[in-house]
Amino acid sequence: MKKYINKITLFLLFAAITTACTVEEFSDLNGPEVNGFENGIAPGDLQDLVGGIFYSSRVSLGTYFDDVGVIGREYYRFASSDPRFTSDLLGRENAVLDNNTFYITNPWAGRYRTVKNANLILGFLENPETISQFTTAQLNATKGFLKTFIAYELLLNLNLTDENGIRIDVADETNIGPFVSKTAALAGIRSKLEEAAVDLAAGGSSFPFSLTAGFSGFDTPSSFLKFNKALTARVAAYQGNFPDVITNLNQSFLELNGNLNTGVSYVFSLDQTDIANPMFFALNSSTAGARITQPNFVSDAEAGDTRLNKVVLRNEPLTLDGLTGAYDVFIYQSNIDPIPIIRNEELILLYAEANIFSNPGAAVTALNIIRNSAGLAPYAGGMDQASLIQEMLKQRRYSLYAEGHRWIDIRRYNLLNTLPIDRVGDDVFSKFPIPLTENQ
After folding, report:
1. Long-range CB contact pairs, 120-123, < 8 A, 24+
2. CATH number of the domain bearing residue 145
């Protein structure tokens, strides 16, 4: 990890780049020495530094989604110049996941880079000169924002390595903590979110910096706290703690009858210093670069499911490396469309999942909200836990398609063996290896 998160120069590089959208253009931070910040940061500095968080949180995001989307058999990632998308990730002919290649090292480094950036800023906030320039509420709001980002970035890396674990204690670059188990990692992430919630609750009426347009409606400490609670509900579900899922959903932005797309998103632009949406490919793209829907997504759908509009029939099927598909993934119609971090549709499905184990009637009510929104008739299956879990996972499959959930969902219910195998000799991996650069 030290290769990725110990270099102050990386922090300065990403803090120097603008995030476009609603964040004001930054001054050039490549020049100042780090000890200049350690001696205190002014409000303008803080805006610049937070901009680095927004930037680095999107680095290698497309690779992360391809990792979980391909292994989760949601789609094929065709790239004729790099066969590892269709060989390694699909376990072809006894292939193994390489611990020293881009599909793990790049997203891993990107997420820990953001964690390091956030920890650096938290350290700067402790300087007396910094404290003198902000109110206590502003300092609390900033801490809550940064800790929420740290927790979320750690969760994404844990989603990749799963039982191989992650490092949680990385604040001190000279004394990085050990890898911890999945259980301990989830507990640590949950604790960080809860710390952040306390800070946000004492954060006053506004942040001392601007957030991107992806946080519209969640850009004050109190509204951002609802985002924090939504993430905490997701983590509680991963822990199997369903009473706590409900508790946190009740404090989040969950609205059973609300807009399904309400939530927080990554935003993109074509500014030369910004990042375009990495999940966009034009319709009918070639094998040079395309995301092709795994055929079962279409064939397994119920008749009339409007969520099939997330894929589009190609002019001709596309084949690469023994894989063929007739539909393009087309959730994003341009390279500046936002990508959801978490939205109300997921929260409704989390509410349904949590209630399966305590209030099946409430679970069905929530599932029917999702089904009806997709043009489907109300649920008519069994009311036992197994049947409701199957229905919940199906609705998550279609509602959250290609948003980074399918592989994690199937894995946490021990159903990886139900994912389709498209070629003889392929395999479904349960986790990525720890990057070689970690030098455990």
Report:
1. 120/8, 120/11, 120/37, 120/49, 121/41, 121/46, 121/49, 121/50, 121/53, 121/146, 122/146, 122/147, 122/171, 123/38, 123/171
2. 1.25.40.390
